[in-house]
Amino acid sequence: MRFTPDISDPAASPQATEWFAASAGNHGAEALGFRSAPGGVHLSKTMMLAELATVLDRLPVSDAAEVERAIVVDNLLGKPTGSARRLALARLNTLYGILTPRPVQLAALRLWPRSVAGRPVLALLCALAREPLLRQSARPVLDAHPGASVRWPDLASAILAEYPDRYSLKMLKSLAQNCVSSWTQSGHLQGRVNKRRRLADPSPEAAAYAALLGSLAGFGGPALLRSPWMRLLDRSEADLLSLLRRAESAGLARLRAGGGVVQIDVRRPMAQLLEVPDLVDR
């Protein structure tokens, strides 16, 4: 498919700051594990959901030496060369912190065994926190109605609008196709060749994690429910509150909603339950 950039309305494309509350920006977010510099794994690879599942289903990620040995020495991921094994390890560490997790990555790793059905969305959320280019590709996917066609040039145009002079068309195509693959792995798209929009299937744990990322990005109250992090869940505000109430019953959130008041606290409950104190201490 030939790629013809469409940046006639760059204002319609999401800006990098859309993912962070205007009053907070992204100051301090990088210390928690967010990344704001372009580049990253999606320039050459997808979010690697299958590889992540292989590692997390078989190994305790609390033992970095064992994880490294399993991937590099024992070839857990079935890579053809030693360099490919090390590269896979580095990419998984960049996205998910399987060796050296930052707080937002550690929270995702500790939520993983609690939610089998929600793992694709959980992994995507963590990858979005780590990959600004993947965040920039979100609007064409999220704006598409269920059943609508979503093509890699749509994502390429959204990325190009934010980074007009950074990537060659060849690199932009590869990047956009990798992002399309990640959105397919997460359940937001379906189809082998012709990708079409579908609604994702979030779990209460994934909803709590989305709320955590949104809270750390500076959103609160009703604005948190409308943040891009929560929009990834493909649910109405009423359904989001229902998911968060279920997360509350699991100790992952504290919720007060009624009479026009919405208060959502996920940082303290998750910091305590998942033993990630930096979620509140930073």
Q: Briefly, what is this?
A:
By secondary structure, this protein is mainly alpha-helical.
How would you describe the overall organization of this protein?
- By secondary structure, the chain is mainly alpha-helical.
- It has two domains: 1-201, no CATH class; 204-281, Arc Repressor Mutant, subunit A (Orthogonal Bundle), CATH 1.10.10.
- Helices cover 51% and strands 5% of the residues.
- The protein has 16 helices and four strands.
- The protein has helices at 29-32, 49-58, 64-73, 82-96, 103-111, 119-130, 132-136, 138-142, 152-162, 169-185, 204-216, 222-225, 228-231, 237-249, 267-273, 278-281, and strands at 189-190, 196-197, 254-258, 261-265.
- The strands form two sheets. A two-stranded antiparallel sheet has the order 1-2.
- α5 packs antiparallel against α6 (119-130), α5 (103-111) packs antiparallel against α11 (204-216) and α9 crosses α10 (169-185).
- Residues 1-16 have low confidence and may be disordered.
